[in-house]
Amino acid sequence: MAVRPVLVLPDPFLQRPSAKVGTVDARALALAADLLDTMRDRPACVGLAAPQIGVGLRAFAVDVTGHRKARSCAGELVLFDPELLSSASPQLAREGCLSIPDLTGDVARATEVVVRGIGIDGGERVVHADAFEARALLHELDHLDGFLFLDRVSSAHSVYRRKVYR
Question: Which residues form the active site (predicted)?
Fold first, then answer.
């Protein structure tokens, strides 16, 4: 429906926990379309959460299709009210974020996850993911709880200026 502006740190909205969506209605579907349109508009973007576009609801879009670090791939995915059911095998890796465009950081995240949420059809969706897709899902879940990757970096020495702008 629309490409929306992405909020950047230090916008305080990014650090607020989001409210449940509840029912997938016309408003939720419009949000899903905006998340997908905005994500597709940003080169190399693999995920976007509703708080990043100024909407305080538990919804995100993820798509790791074609990413060189992806093993599992659920394709283009929008989840409402997602929750983490299980996670395993944490590994340290570099992350970036549209809301923190000038920095990256080393973050330990599970490399195997199971996430459950509501899909755009209103039905329950369970996603089993590993490797990069697991990291992307956890990163977006953090946004819904008001956390940014800077809150998860392994140490202050694990934050870096982004060298390549895409």
Answer: 140
